[in-house]
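Our collaborator T.R. sent over the components below with a one-line note: 'Predict the complex.' Nothing else. No constraints on interfaces, no templates requested, no preferences about which chain binds where. So this is a plain run: every listed entity goes in together, and whatever single assembly comes back becomes the starting point for the next discussion.
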Amino acid sequence: MANLLNLYKDWNCSKSKAFSVGRCTVNGPAAVLNNWSILGASGSVVIPPGGVIRGMYGSAADRPFTGQNFSFSGGSDLGTLKLFTTDDGIISDRASNLYGAPTIWNGYFSGIYRYTDEEEPHEEHQYSYYIQSYRDSADAYNFYCGMYSQSPISGPRDEWSYTQFYRTNDSPIGVSEYARNNGYTQVRIFYVEIEEQQFYMIAYGFSAEYNNILWGTGLAGGALFLIPEAWFKQGSPEDYTGSESAPNSEDGSGFNPGEKWEDSTGYREITDTNPYGFNSGNGLKLFILPKTALGTILQGIYSSSSQSIGNIISQQLDKLAGGNGNRPYQEIEAMLRGIVCCHYIPGLADIVGDYMTLSTISGYRVWFAQDMQATSAKAGTIYQWDTEPFYIRRSLNSFLDYEPYTTITLQLPFMKSVSLPPSAVYNKWMWIHYSMDIFTGLLNAEIMIQDDTRYYVFSKQQAFIKTDIPIFGSGSNTSTFSSMCSSILSIGAGAATGDAAGIVGGTLKLADSATKLNNGVVVGKENTNGISSYFESREINLIISNPIPAIPGGDGFDESGTLARENVFLQQSGIVSNTKGKVKNFKGFAKFQSVKLDTVTAPQEIKADIEAQLLQGVYII
Amino acid sequence: MALGKVDFYTYTGDQKTANKNLGSVVASSGQIKPLEPLSNLSVLFTLDYKSAAMGCNYIGFGGMYYKIQDRKFLTGGGMEITARLDSLLSYWAQVKESPCVCERSSSIYDSDMNDSKYPVYQKQDIQTKHIDTLDNDDYIVFGIVE
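Returned assembly:
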């Protein structure tokens, strides 16, 4: 079915710099060698005679190309050049000897899927592909996913509407900061094959200089589609499962085409019966907003595809007004049932900040937790975060460092304080591993301890820290549905007359409780958990309670657990020894627990006297 | 009964020292005349008066060392000595090689073993260490199913 073709090399050219990659040599079967394409934005491309070069950015040149050697040269503003084969091939046949001198904007990752299935036209296909990148920043910064056809599109547009790409959101940048910092991207495709068409999904990296390239930018042949979606999955070079050593994240050396980073956890598994990979529908989308944005949640946050909830309501009411909606209330109810949560979570920025992508909706800065959508609806809502590690040293260097004399308590925000047995934590690195399910509001804190050779979870605490914001109330489909509908109808009064302010006003009315929240008042309804999390300290503190030694005239024990020799207590009372030996070994003060005087030739009465003195305590010089 | 001469010592060190260094002999006297049978631990006898022995507190004779507990100056010019055997010092050469288990020591000890005699104040020294602070920028999570 599908043929995996690898892009051997791409040369991303600075717009402002002359470009020359020199000569490259291609080895492989004729079918491979004779079919090459170059994707270039503009500028001159010198093609060796005899081959076929297809310019995808509007170039009309299909030039003969049969040689094994070829070169490119060009002036400024060449854009990104992509060289790839359009024929079936074996990776090993084409993996070598196709490396020119990279430019400073060199991109190191790409992959091409080509699917040709002329025998089974209109067959539905689901597909996934992992885009590999071993550059850790710039190359993955602007990820591009496109589709083109070798043949002009002849069918009606509707035929193409079944073809979809998926990615996490339609941000022009496209790849989360986390993903691009870790150089791993997953793209999946779901489409319907159309007869006699060949489709390619091309994904390749751009330098930061090309971040103005948007989805939908023209590709050759006119086979353009609406914004495709791809799902991006974070990974890291450590996950690399190739046969060779992991690629060098700096220069890309060590990379073998066809190998990939692989992290099998959390992917949406697409099957014939579950084409979207979710348990139902398109799945869960969570948006993370600053408190001040709550008042306009319902205006613009409903969908990343710019469908505001107000628009949706308006559409529903238009249907109602036009008489073409047979089930208006049910439709509205169904739509509103789609809102599955709205709650306040304190301290969330710290917890999920690294994963979020900033965008702007309705003038508000909105953090999209986009990575979660790469996984199942449930698992994808969980974020993890570690505190800086800390280290607890002994302070008294004696038994007083331990319980019951010394107590160590870890105070965790929103949770019960945790008592840490000193024996378990002294002289070890510790940190707190947080897991936060922003959907359920469950915060999990694992106290981690680094032992000599491993780390382990010493203790675990959990707390629900969310506070529900009652937009509709939990009984939206029953008891409060009527009041909800009345609110909607009041919105509709504005919408029907084209009064946008009416929509906004009505929306704000629905979010009235949220507005009060912004003013510091929490309005409780039936599904409000409580407000305790508002008032809790956000500090993570360690509290250590030590005894204070009261020995007469002496310092405490030093780091080796030794008292100063002149310490009076030491001289006159000694410290617990519990050591066996010969009497003469115990210089200074010595109080013996037992002594064996078998070899002493004294009469028994004298032996008893000797033993009594030794057991009472003597000085030995 | 002839027990040989008696050596007098002046010892100023700690009485609990097992292996006392008595120093040099300060004075010596003649034959001991026991006033009663000598026991293992205590002796009572008379000696000829020796002025040099006036300040001494230890005597030694027959390989044993005794701590002088009392002395009387007799009208006839002699001294009556009451003394107790310093058994540790007398048998130290054998005692020091004896195997033992030491309960408390000022030289070989382990500070991590619980020591009920080690004095501490009832009050405690409270220290706090700040680990981290969760951000005060709270957020709202809004979820939909589409």
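Summary for T.R.: Chain B has a mean pLDDT of 86.
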